[in-house]
Amino acid sequence: MARSKNVVPSYSLHKPTGQAQVRVDGKMFYLGEYGSEKSRIRYSEIIAKLTSGVPIDPIGIAKRKQNANSGQDPDSGPSVAELVLAFKSHSEAYYRKPNGKMTDEVQCLKSAMKPVRELFGLIPTRDFTPLMLKTVRETYIGNGWTRGFCNRSTNRIRSMFKWGVENGIVPVATWQALTAISPLKAGRCEAHDNDRREAVSDENIQLVKARLEQRNRDIVDLLLLSGCRIGELLSLTWPMIDRSGETWEAELKNHKTAYRGKIRKLHFGKQSQAILNRYLGTPTSQTIFNLRRDTFSKSITSACHRAGVPKFVPHQLRHTAGTRIRDEIGVEAAQAVLGHAAAAMTAIYTRNTDRLARSAAAKMG
Asked: Cα–Cα distance between 322 and 226 in angstroms, integer?
């Protein structure tokens, strides 16, 4: 689908005069000294009017609210920028793992909040409208984000305003209005969807493994045997693993659903134990594989390219493990190994609808 022109006009520099400028519908508006607070305020007002469908008055833009002598309240309340700053501080303290490390959600929130602050930071929170949030969402689309990530980022901004209501920064009516925005629908917007992640074929796995160093081959095998997440495997240290039983177990303290009070255990059978035993010399104070997740991911991408197979990511090996376990043992076993609280989540990882349909068609004729 062809991408339309960005609906958010850019704040730019008019070099001959040193003024900030913005072009709207072919007309240029000069905003004052480039980079100054005054020019940013005027830019925000123009964008706010544009997204609200209000005609832009170049003379009225320069006028500020009257002071208290006019009978109007000069205090317009907290600005959107103040809300963003307060919520950023809250999220950095709130979204943490049991070990104190910030979760990935913090970076996702910062990415979502950046255009809110840049476009509408100087506007009072009470004046922030659904049209403004939709304008922010357009910047997400313009950044090339997937439809799902655009929707999740929009929800993050709504959550920020909801938090603002809870803490007296945002009027409740502002947040309620933002809940009226519908999510982007597949095929009905310009945001793209990535291809659905599927299990990786055995042939492609072997071709990629042949181009990996021994340590990375071992990690691939462990991911397939255990069904764990790459981050879980790479976080393991020897003291975390109970080797007293026939099956080794590792209880994770820092995992995806730890904040919900969930327990996550990894289990390693004989084949996995044989692989892990190669690394018994690793100091107990270090992770067993002493490898970063992004480094391993890059090695997989490079191996896919050299092997001439479709690119896959480490998480797809978890899909592959889930599919194998479901086919050979059953969905309950797959759910237990993958650590899912609900079978519906396991079904996402172990799609075999097509296989069942083909089998049924063959039997029914």
From this structure: 9
